[in-house]
Amino acid sequence: MQHRSIDVNIPIGDAGMGGHLAVPATAPRGAIVVIQEIFGVTPAMRAIADDFASQGYIALVPDIYWRLQPNLDLGNGEDPTMRQLAVDYSIRFDEELGTQDLVAAADWLKSFLELPYQPAVLGFCLGGRMAVRVAAAARFSCMVSMYGVGLDKMGAQIHSASCPVQFHFGENDNHNPLTTIETVREATRTRGRTSDEFYTYPGAEHAFYNRFRLDRFNEAAHQIARERIVRFLAHHMLGA
């Protein structure tokens, strides 16, 4: 499916947060807020948004680091120096303020496009944690967290999310040991909602979904996860 991509500015207070917006050429099936990894709004994140636009979904990647340094692109993690710089930015990133910014981005997306339904939220790594935060803070049609980090300490937020949730982890994730993954699985199970989904991928590493991360990308796991995400979105987006 054809789509177009544009850079946008999301008004927040007297300033604005940038973002990459991918829009399908035909009437959208739904809308997604895509939350970046620790490396910024990189070509990899733009490509993921474009891919979902090709599936019929409007996809917005907000520049969550805009208060620290707008328009960051720190690669995909292979370079140790750039990776450490990205870690430094993630540590400096104010997650409470970032949650407010992401909720504002979702509100802007719904208002700007006059959507008659709530967007979904999909995040990767740091974005996978932020997806849980924003799903607990505001209404979304559904939430997908791809190998979110630190989620074993976020049971309260997982339980607070009012929408259906879907989690994905590689079983060989150096940032999420199996004990962490099982803690998140249990938190999801105790929500007691049949609409929730939880998946793990044998042999897959952290960032397995990122085609640009050549040392981690797992084609088989990516394809299965993509199919599951698209099905989940189609089931829960009111615009589907």
From TrEMBL:
This is Dienelactone hydrolase family protein. It comes from the Bacteria. Residues 18-236 form the Dienelactone hydrolase domain. The keyword Ribonucleoprotein does not apply. Keywords: Hydrolase. GO terms for molecular function: hydrolase activity. InterPro entries: AB_hydrolase_fold, Dienelactn_hydro, Dienelactone_hydrolase-like. It comes from Ralstonia soli.
